[in-house]
Amino acid sequence: METELKDVKMVNTKSSFNSKPLMVRLLALTLTLVAAVLLGVDKQTTTVSLTIVTSLPPVDLPVTAKWNHMSAFVYFVIANAIACSYGATSLIVILVTRGKNKLVSLMLTVLDLVMVALLFSAIGATGSIGLIGYNGNSHVHWDKVCNVFGKFCHQVAIAVFLSFAGSLAYLLLIVLAALKLHDKF
Fold it and tell me: Tens digit of pLDDT for each residue in 94-127?
């Protein structure tokens, strides 16, 4: 019996685009989604004793802390929803174009930069309000509220952390695009 050796062609099984940016983009989408939802459903009601006149007993009032009571928290939720929507849209665009269109890649890199700026501004606004809620401000006689609304403040802090991680993921996408551009030259 005679054995015949046939020429075997090597088939390139590598995809036409890199999966690292796709995974980072999916991570950014997930982090911003969870941050928006976490703060968007954040609500806590507690009873606060209020003394109107010292000769009368204090009046107990139910007080609710919600995300839509502070404009910085509204901005945070909207900014993270925009970043999440952009992340989903950009994933679809990349999968449709298979990463081959240079103009689309440039546009996505610029929009990634816009998402970083948007998220950083929302994190800064929310962080400053959160810090005032945590520490108060003695100069304008604002009392701290996180000792009363502990659960609410903890959820805000976790949402800010997740959003920051999401903005770092978008920043990593910009770095990966710059490294890819550097490899070409």
Answer: 889 887 788 888 899 999 999 999 999 999 999 9
CB of 97 closer than 8 Å to CB of 104:
yes
> Tokens 């075997």 map to which residue?
8
The answer for residues whose C-beta is within 8 angstroms of residue 109's C-beta and 6 or more apart is 173, 174, 177
- Residue 118 contacts residue 127 (beta carbons within 8 Å): no
Q: What would the pLDDT profile of 48-97 be if each residue is shown by its tens digit?
A: 888 888 888 888 888 888 888 889 999 999 999 999 999 999 999 988 98
Considering only the C-alpha atoms of the chain, give the largest distance between any 2 of them, rounded to a whole number of Å.
Answer: 113
Q: Quick one: residue 145, left, alpha or beta (phi over 0 = left, psi -120 to 50 = alpha)?
A: alpha
Taking residue 108's Cβ as centre, other Cβ atoms within 10 Å add up to 23
Q: pTM for the whole thing?
A: 0.82
Task: Identify the DSSP state of 7.
Answer: -
